[in-house]
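[stage:ingest] chain + small molecule (flavin-adenine dinucleotide)
[stage:ingest] validated
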Amino acid sequence: MVYDLIIVGGGPGGATAAMIAAEKGSKVLLLEAGKEGRYKCCAGGIPVTNEEFTPIPHGVGEREMTGGVIVTPKSGPMNFDTTEKKDKGFCMFRTDFDKYLVDIACNAGAEVTYGFRAKSFEFKSGVVVVKGPQDLRCKCVILATGLGGARLQRSLGMEVPPMINGIQAEFAIPESAITGQFGNRVWEFFDRTISEHGIAWAFPKREAVSIGVLGRGIKIRDFKSFLRYPFIKDKIEGREMKVFGCHKIWAAPIPDKLIAKPYRDRVMIIGDACGTADPILYEGIYQARLSGKLAAEIFCKAYEEEDFGENSLSRYHNLLLMHLYEEELRYSYKIHTLLYHSGLLEKIINAAYSMAQEDPEMMQAMIAMFTRSKTRKKIWKIMLSRKRKLIKHLGISSSLHLIPALFRALRI
Ligand SMILES: Cc1cc2nc3c(=O)[nH]c(=O)nc-3n(C[C@H](O)[C@H](O)[C@H](O)COP(=O)(O)OP(=O)(O)OC[C@H]3O[C@@H](n4cnc5c(N)ncnc54)[C@H](O)[C@@H]3O)c2cc1C
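[stage:predict] done
[stage:export] C-alpha cells:
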C-alpha cells in the first residue's frame, strides 16, 4: 500500500495539514510518536484567528480571554480589555486541543496512528519509505515534528531552526479563584531580572493556570524564583502543580527563526520544525497551522500534476514567504530586535503602554500584539509612525541606547 501523503507529527501543524489534504480526497496517514492525549508543554493561548482553520468549540477552548495584563518592574499591572470578537482568544490544554484537531483530520478521512516514531526515510523509485516500528510508503512527506525531530531533519540534509527554551508548570486552582485573581486575562511579564531574555507568563485555563518563563539557557531556579514574583506568589500560595507523565515542571524549546529552505524533493517541513513561531510573545500554534494549510494545498497541486520534485514543492516556500514572512514574521523579527536586543525591554513596554493611554490606534496595536487582529506589518508601521513620541517617552539617554537596535531592526 502506498499512501499519497504521510504526515509525521500530530501537533496543530500536522493535524491541520492532514485535515486539508484528506478533505481533498487524498490517501493521508498521520503518524504521531506520542500516545493519544499526550501532554504538550505549552501555555495554550490561541487567538480567535485560529478559527480560520476550524471552529474552537466550548470545552476545547477552556477559558475565553477578553483582555490582558502587562507587568514590568516599574509599572504594576497594566490592563487592557478587548471588546471586539476579532480580539478575543482562548486558553486551553494542548492535550484537548491537539486531540480535537486530530479527530477532525480523522473525520475528514485521514488515517491516524499514535505511538509511531518515524526513525528515518529512504527514497526509492518514486516513493518515500518512512521507517519506524514498521516500513510505510508514500509519495510525499510533510514533516511536522516540532523541535523533537531535529535528528530526522538533519538526516534529510535539512536545516533545524535556532531555538530558545521555556519552562512551565500548571497550577491546579479552583475555577472561581482563577476568575477572581487572574480574570479572563493573559498575564505577560517583561523583566530581565526574571531571566536574561526577560519574558514570563501566567495563562489561566478553566481550573489551572500555566505559569512559565523563557530564555536561552533558562534554569529551573529561574522558574522557581519567578514563582516568588509579585502578582504571582500570593496567587499560587498553597496551590499544587499538576502532574503530567510523572513530571510537575516541564521544559520545551520554541524556535526563533524560519529555516531558509523548508522543502526538498518529496518533503516539506511545517510548523516549529520549520521555525514558524513568532518571537515576540513566542506563540506558534496559529503559524504552525497556517504553514500546514499552505503545505497541504501545494501537496494537492503536486498530486494533480504528479510532480513531487523539488521545484514543484518550492511553491510551498513561496506561499510561506508571501503569507507568513512578508506580512508577519519579517516585522516580528524587527520588533523582537527592538525589545530583546536593545537593553530597553521594560522601558519600551512602559513607554508604549503610556502612549496608548491617549492614542486609541496605539492601544489597538498593543492589543493586536496579543490577539493578532492586525498583522505584524501593520503594528510595525503604527509604531514607526510614532517613533519621535516613543523616543520622547524613553528619554534621551535611553534613546541613544536604542539606536544600534533600531538600525539592526530597520535593516532586516
Ligand atoms: C513553554 C511553551 C509555551 C508555549 N505557549 C504557547 C502559546 O500560549 N500559544 C501558542 O500559540 N504557542 C505556544 N507555544 C508554541 C507552540 O507550542 C508551538 O509553536 C506549536 O506546538 C507548534 O506546533 P507544531 O505542530 O509545529 O509542533 P508540535 O506541537 O511540537 O507537534 C509536533 C508533534 O510531532 C511529534 N513527533 C516528533 N517527532 C516525531 C517522530 N519522529 N515521529 C512521529 N511523531 C513525532 C511530537 O510528539 C508532537 O506531538 C509554546 C511553546 C512552549 C515550549
